[in-house]
Amino acid sequence: MPSQTDDAHWMALALAEARLAAEAGEVPVGAVLVKDGQLIATGRNTPVAQHDPSAHAEINALRAGAAALGNYRLDGCELFVTLEPCAMCAGAMLHSRLARVVFGAADPKTGAAGSVLDLFAEPRLNHRTQVQGGVLAEECAGVLQGFFQQRRSVAREQAEPLRDDALRTPLERFAALGDYAFAPHHVQDLPGLHGWRLHYVDEEGAPGEDGHLASCLCLHGPGEWGYFFRHLVGAQGVRTLVPDLIGFGKSDKPKREAAHRLEWHRDVLLEWLDRVQPQPVVLVHSAAATELASLLQAAAAGRFAAAIVTPDGGERIKDAWRAPYPDRGYEAALRALGPLAWSSGPTPAQATALARSARNAMGYSAS
I want to staple 119 with a disulfide (CB 3.0 to 4.6 A). Which of 90, 143, 249, 328 is the partner? Predict the structure, then answer.
């Protein structure tokens, strides 16, 4: 019986094939064929490149293995594949008389080794192939998830084109900020945005003891971005709405300073609030955002149940504040409204206190 160490070794080789498929733009599935502890053949998904719906990783590995062994019967061979086989591939494996099939991630949509159906357990078929799933399952699933996330990101970019006079910070610049990995939201069709794309976070914490959530507009100032509020996002009892002003954070960055006036940012924020939260909110803002917060309150006092200035925890995290700006071309907003503030934002304990204050301001019981 093969050891778990052996299985992991061969699955790692299949994962390498999957990553090559991803680099070629194919769904990242890889496979290797093994006999008597020796690598016989490899395969990866190529249906797009070959214009062939049957060119799955498993089929490609089986074809290469049969050619290498000079026999369409693959008695005694084991096939390692990063994703649970579909019905087509499972059928080919049974026809080739494989001794064993090992897969990584389960496929709840098309898996034919137990997820949707189990061809390998069909008693009316005249061959029995051992099946084992779950080997390096997390790694195999992670490659697939990363591929489809990137594909969705590209689709969003195509659906939300970038203006010629603006820049959009690559998402890789933010990849190291594990404490701000919240689901992104974007809006581009507000009249005041003129086609620039605004990024924002919209996260709900667990409801308070009374079942209510207090909605908070978390407003950063010049030289900051939404990362300032990372410890408040998702706090119990509050819904946190955290926009990145145009020119900052993950929002589009106009190349010219003239685009950046606090009055224009105020108008964009009010349009955005009308769409995402028409009811009154608690305005939670950094000290650097005091002037913009005052403009908002003066223009639409009824929109805000209260205004709270956040404390600064005192920590300086240079990489986080430099992340939105790969080079000077991205820094028009900094030149127009002020340099990097370097403020770290509230600590977790201060964020908890802020959430309580916001709930009190809305007339809800403290959590």
Answer: 90
